[in-house]
Design brief:
This protein is α+β, with helices and mostly antiparallel strands. Helices cover 27% and strands 23% of the residues.
């Protein structure tokens, strides 16, 4: 038995455990620190090592191999604020002979291949920047050798940072077929050199913040009236081998992102052209029709769907966590592969169809729920009754938060940390969920469907357990499933099987027994700028929001809709009021030197019009404003 600990040091830091070729635990650092996209650039006790070992049921003494990846390290570029390990790091000795280091793109490739179940595959890795080295080659070597190489004094010379890689995976080995390297520039937020930097830079420009890729993908699907200010042909050349152009950046976006759908659509189409070109080329170079993809760009459902439709591609496999958090998974799989006899390079042992690899949900007792003001509908220990009642309530239009089992590892909630509703029974379901999540009303939600029902309602790939593809809704169901559709008529479907996601499969089956379409709308159990919820305390606080009707755990159900307590509040003179943006995306803020809080438009206008107003005291915005001193009672 070989047990391997994989560690990703970089943004979206994570840890994973693989035992005998099977992924058994994986935890992103953000879920522990509660800082969205949290990173850790060197070995530190901030990494979720203890948590992932606990979920795997092992200790450091049980670990046979440790494999780390250091995204921020480069020759002559480690130290000062970025050492390879903190002096206080206590999980293990970095120079332990068990400890190895792997390069970024090789770990990405392994994360895609070893979760696909494919014995051979073409592999495409694409991201903004991977490992920086002197020769641009992949490596897997002992930590002491890596340390010596990166700290050694060496003559000046060009350094290479990988940007896109193509491999063939055959007979248990990765063969690098092609690699492109990024180019340094003093304006990286303007200089566009790849599909990754194109999408990232345009998203930053339109939304004026990092991590806006999902918003731009949704924005690109909104309808646009009149002639667009930008089209894909302005950004890339036409033809079989598209090339990025220059000069198209001379444009001015509107303050409201919703007024920039034409720009987003142009960038999305150009991005898709580039990525499909490289996917087609990867399959041709490898001579293998099955394609594994990894890197942050493969969180883009529109491009993934276009790749799946390419004539030369038979199957596309994208892991649950294609972005950098998945690096720890690839590192752990490579540690397992390299621990086998030299003449027996192992093949992927199975396809990973479930992503429930994270921290186990804390139990919520009736006493704890009662303290939060929530009565018990079905007591713990009655899992069958809780599921039956939850399905009946969903069929009546309720919104149910599910907090159960082990958390999803990847960025998308798949049922264990989800907000659920029915697209027909729940009137205005999408608007309610978007209001609950405090996000733009045009953002899409995701329908969940049993895999055997997929073709009845949707057209697209054969499966999508990690919500990695867009699907077209069949014409006869477009009106019925309107709440599950994006403005462009597509749906980001999650397929469910009894083996990989038994609890949600059971809920969908029970929904069908109520005579409704066996589909649920799913969005992640978290608020804006917040990682997916992983603690009972946070879960109980979140479901105080009036839109949530019930909280479903592994074996219990709690009612969360509480009577709205009306309070009279006023704004102290020291608190300023401001509006950022315009239209549907406008943000209404109360602020003083110690705190800023977003409120809804109605409360903002009420406060503008009169000194004292009556408000729903049970709402999170009023409670938060009272707690921060932005409003006072009376």
């Amino acid at each position: 038995m070989t047990t391997v600990l994989g560690i990703h040091c970089g943004h979206e830091a994570s840890c994973s455990v693989v035992r005998d070729g099977r992924l058994i635990a994986a935890v992103q650092q953000e879920r522990v620190t509660r800082r969205k996209y949290d990173g850790q650039e060197f070995l530190s006790d901030r990494l979720p090592i203890a948590q992932v070992l606990h979920e795997a049921g092992v200790t450091m003494d049980d670990i046979d191999v440790i494999v780390s990846s250091f995204q921020a390290a480069g020759p002559s570029g480690v130290g000062l604020q970025r050492p390879l390990f903190a002096r206080s790091f206590s999980a293990f000795d970095p120079f332990d002979p068990r400890h190895h280091v792997v390069s970024h793109h090789l770990a990405h490739a392994a994360s895609a291949v070893y979760t696909s179940g494919l014995a051979q595959a073409a592999v495409l890795v694409s991201d903004s920047a991977g490992t920086t080295s002197r020769d641009g080659a992949d490596f897997y070597l002992p930590f002491k050798d890596f340390y010596g190489s990166y700290y050694s004094d060496a003559p000046d010379g060009e350094l290479l940072t990988e940007m896109r890689s193509v491999y063939a995976f055959r007979q248990g080995r990765f063969v690098l077929l092609d690699r492109a390297f990024s180019r340094a520039h003093n304006q990286p937020d303007v200089f566009v050199q790849s599909e990754a930097s194109l999408y990232d830079n345009v998203a930053r420009y339109l939304f004026r913040q990092e991590h806006s890729h999902g918003q731009m993908m949704a924005l690109a699907g909104l309808p646009w009236q009149g002639a667009p200010r930008l089209v894909a042909d302005d950004i890339v050349t036409a033809g079989a081998a598209p090339r990025l152009k220059n000069g198209w950046q001379l444009l001015e976006a509107a303050p409201d992102p919703a007024d920039n759908a034409d720009i987003a659509a142009a960038a999305q189409e150009a991005f898709t052209r580039l990525l499909t070109h490289h996917a087609q080329r990867a399959v041709e170079l490898a001579g293998i029709p099955d394609l594994c993809c990894a890197g942050g760009v493969f969180l883009n459902l529109t491009a993934n769907s276009a790749i799946a439709a390419l004539p030369g591609v038979r199957e596309v496999s994208v892991p649950s966590c294609p972005h950098d958090a998945g690096i720890s998974v690839g590192a752990a799989f490579l540690g397992w592969a390299h621990s086998q006899p030299r003449n027996e390079m192992p093949l992927p042992s199975h396809r990973v169809g479930a992503d429930f690899l994270g921290v186990t949900a804390e139990a919520i007792t009736p006493e704890r729920a009662a303290e939060a003001g929530f009565p018990t509908a079905v007591p713990p220990g009655e899992a069958e009754e809780a599921a039956a009642m939850a399905a009946a309530l969903l069929a009546q239009g309720a919104i149910v938060a599910r907090f159960a089992g082990r958390a999803e590892f990847g960025p998308r909630a798949l049922g264990n940390r989800s907000l659920l509703s029915h697209p027909v029974a729940c009137t205005d379901a999408r608007a309610k969920l978007n209001r609950l999540k405090q996000r733009q009303g045009w953002r899409p939600v995701a329908p969940m469907v049993r895999e055997q029902d997929l073709e009845t309602y949707f057209r697209g790939p054969a499966r999508s357990p990690f919500m990695n593809f867009n699907f077209d809704v069949r014409d006869e169901y477009r009106e019925l499933l309107a709440e599950a559709l994006h403005a462009d008529g597509t749906a980001r479907v999650q397929t469910v099987t009894a083996q990989d996601n038994p609890a949600i499969y059971d809920l969908l089956t029970r929904i069908a027994a109520h005579g409704l379409v066996p589909i649920l709308i799913n969005t992640s159990f978290n608020g804006p700028g917040q990682p997916i919820i992983d603690s009972a305390t946070d879960a109980l606080e979140y479901v105080r929001r009036p839109e949530v009707d019930f909280l479903l755990t592994e074996d219990a159900l709690f009612a969360t809709a509480v009577p709205a307590a009306q309070v009279t509040v006023r704004r102290p003179q020291t608190v300023a009021m401001a509006v950022l943006g315009s239209g549907p995306a406008a943000k209404y803020l109360l602020s003083h030197e110690h705190a800023t809080q977003q409120v809804d438009q109605q409360l903002f206008l009420d406060l503008c019009g009169q000194q004292r107003v009556t408000a729903d005291g049970a709402s999170p915005q009023v409670r938060d404003c009272l707690r921060a001193g932005l409003l006072v009672e009376g």
